[in-house]
Amino acid sequence: MRILITNDDGINAPGLKVLEAIAAEIAGPTGEVWVVAPAFEQSGVAHKISYTHPMMIAELGPRRFAAEGSPADCVLAGLYDVMTEAKPDLVLSGVNRGNNAAENALYSGTLGGAMEAALQGLPAIALSQYLGPLNFDEELQFEASAAHGAATVRALLDQGHWDSADYRIFYNVNFPPVPAGKVKGLRVGPQGYRRDASFGVEPHRSPSGRRFLWIKGGAQHLPTAPGSDAALNLDGYIAVTPMRADLTAHDALDALKARLE
């Protein structure tokens, strides 16, 4: 199996090393793992593509490249510049440091990479590691994803729903904020919503007196609806959410047609 991996934390991020190990286990001894990751951190860029300016790409080693662009850019670079002999069989994005559950999914560059792969007609999975009091120490941060990542990916490859729709399914996987031994199992759930936890801004002044704004996130440990992604994570489960890039509110179409047409 040929696997392309990317992330949004950057080419030197520890979570990328975890994903390389996961991908190597899935690819097997005769497979190939190719890395095309951002040269610098791209957290929060969502599905951005850099079509207004070129990006430099550098080969750092065998099958390892850094690109000055977003995760979606890196997927495009991987497909159309790096892996020109044959497309990958699978694209993995992550492992993100921090959860991409609930509303975080909408901002996530990690999901942006997986989404672009799906739009290119490829199976894709985004993987993120929830952080909390039980795993915030550096040596524990990626323990759950490192221990359970390969089995989760393999379960999705073997038993997940994969289609060839125009907006084909990709998967969002979030590992719970606990050490590996405390993971209770895997559960499937929808994207949740944290109430009263939206992003905002916090103003600061520089020593020169200029005013700057920092984007400030909300509380990450507020529970979402029972059975949804963040709630499952906070209960100790690996949360798997099937997603599509189609933004249409299908539940509102018929009523809107009746009123407007």
UniProtKB/TrEMBL annotation:
This is 5'-nucleotidase SurE. Keywords: Cytoplasm, Hydrolase, Metal-binding, Nucleotide-binding. It is found in: Cytoplasm. It catalyses: a ribonucleoside 5'-phosphate + H2O = a ribonucleoside + phosphate. It holds the Pfam family SurE. Its cofactor is a divalent metal cation. Coiled coil: none annotated. Its EC number is 3.1.3.5. It comes from the Bacteria. Belongs to the SurE nucleotidase family. It is an enzyme of class 3 (hydrolase). GO terms for molecular function: 3'-nucleotidase activity; 5'-nucleotidase activity; exopolyphosphatase activity; metal ion binding; nucleotide binding. Binds 1 divalent metal cation per subunit. A divalent metal cation binds at residues 8-9, 43, 96. The keyword DNA-binding does not apply. Residues 3-195 form the Survival protein SurE-like phosphatase/nucleotidase domain. It comes from Rhodovulum euryhalinum. The lineage of its organism: Bacteria, Pseudomonadati, Pseudomonadota, Alphaproteobacteria, Rhodobacterales. Nucleotidase that shows phosphatase activity on nucleoside 5'-monophosphates.
